[in-house]
Amino acid sequence: TNDLLKIEQQRQLQELQLQKQSIELRLQAIKAGTQEEKALRLELLENERQTAQLQNQQKPAGQRQDTVAINAGFDTQRTALIQEYADKQIQAELRIFDQRQALAQSEFDLLKTTEEKKTQFRLQAEKDRLNKILELNQQAAVKMSDVEVQTIENSIERINQQIEESKKKDKTQDIYSILGLNLNDDQKEAINTSVSYAIEALNTLAQAKVDAANRAVEAAQKEVESAQTALEAELQARANGYASNVAYAQKELEDAKKNEQKALKEQQKAQRQQQAIDTAQQISSLVTATALIWRQLGIWG
């Protein structure tokens, strides 16, 4: 009976060795950091656990280790492996967030705007990234300390104050700065003496803002479509029994939809500004036209 048991154990060890070689070959062909790589590494770890248990059984009774201790050691490795990939996913999400912020910054830089608006955009980007870090910290295997979290929250509060201060400064500027026209005093004086030139300049700026807003809406809609497709693929993969990350895909879709709503609001705002300027064209006096635009844009009263 003992001889048969040893033969069976040796057969199982040989089978596990073949399985191990197969897993290692598949790992070489897999992209690092993917869910598929994680699944294969967990499978390899389980193979090693079973091998260790069989090898332990083959030892003389006095040399055998406690099976519970062996399993505990492999459980620790398994937990560490799962945490490693959770942290990698968090880093990947932050990289994607940074890329989106960089894209938004590049698009914003194409627009003519005031220095205060640029400051507000930069501060808002900093605030959004700090909030993203706090959000990802909730998913992290090793979380930040309470002091670190409080420091970030204090930074966010300070940024909120700076944004409000910048908005107050923005309201004190003249109409040209508000509409993003970076003109010197001579140019402003020339505009003041020419109603047609002023209205034409405002029209050009308003149309540029509408065009930019339209492009932003189109880009946001494409992002929603892409995120929807990715979610459907993850759901199909899960239904077919493959490794998937439905929760992450759903989060991406939600973020894309939020960006789309934000783009739509900016589009509506640009259209309202253009309508205000169209109305002002009917006014013969530049001063009267300027006052009308200010009121309809919500700058006065």
Automatic annotation (TrEMBL):
Residues 6-57, 203-273 form a coiled coil. This is Uncharacterized protein. It comes from human gut metagenome. Keywords: Coiled coil. The keyword Coiled coil applies.
